[in-house]
Amino acid sequence: MGIFDRTTKGHVTPAVAVTLEHGALAFFAETIGESDPIYFDTQAAVAAGHPDILAPATYAVAIGAFAGQQALRQGLPDIIDLIKADLRVLLHGTEAYTYHGPMFAGDTVLVENEITDFTDAKGGKLEIAHVTTRISHAERGPRVTATRAMIHRLG
Questions:
Q1: What share of the chain is helix, strand, coil (3-state, %, to 5)?
Q2: Which residue, of 3, 69, 72, 107, has the greatest Cβ tally within 10 A?
Q3: Which helix (H) or strand (E) holds 130?
Q4: Residue (of 111, 19, 106, 24) closest to 64 by Cα position
Q5: In angstroms, rounded to a whole number, what is the distance separating the alpha carbons of residues 120 and 2?
């Protein structure tokens, strides 16, 4: 058998709150080359009908990272520790995102991870942990659902 702790299948982490900060959002948007001012200028965003600057779709990755840091600060294990991933042989697998609605500067979202499955591939040379991350807003509901695979290369 592999390295992952397969007894964690089905585990859902406690929801962690992350507040989308204006400066961090604007910096991220500019860094990825976003040119539409609704992503970094409050006046432009409000003129376009938004309550504040809009989070770029790819910002969900940053929110997941912030949630992991926040979980550690709260004494909770991050997903890597929970499934007992070994960083020496861990590879990044596929990931997919489903967007349910926008997020804006000032929003506080809740982030939870579910360990949905473990599988093997290449005759046991690879083991794969399948994780679903859900980002939701208390009033507006689901914002993003992300699925990803983390892979141990065993052979």
A1: 30, 35, 35
A2: 107
A3: strand 126-137
A4: 111
A5: 9
pLDDT tens for the chain, 155 residues long, are 689 999 999 999 999 999 999 999 999 999 999 999 999 999 999 999 999 999 999 999 999 999 999 999 999 988 999 999 999 999 999 999 999 999 999 999 999 999 999 999 999 999 999 999 999 999 999 999 999 999 999 97
Retrieve residue 3's tokens. 């390295």
Start-end of H helices in 21-107: 22-31, 42-47, 59-73, 79-82
CA-CA distances (angstroms) from residue 23 to 39, 51, 55, 154? 11, 15, 11, 42
Round to whole Å and give the CA distance between 98 and 155.
33
Distance CA 3, CA 128 (A): 10
The two structure tokens encoding residue 47:
């003129």
Which DSSP symbol is given to 42? H
Exposed/middle/buried for residue 144 (C-beta within 10 Å: 0-12, 13-18, 19+): buried
Q: Tokens 């141990």 label which residue? A: 152
Token output for 43: 């006046």
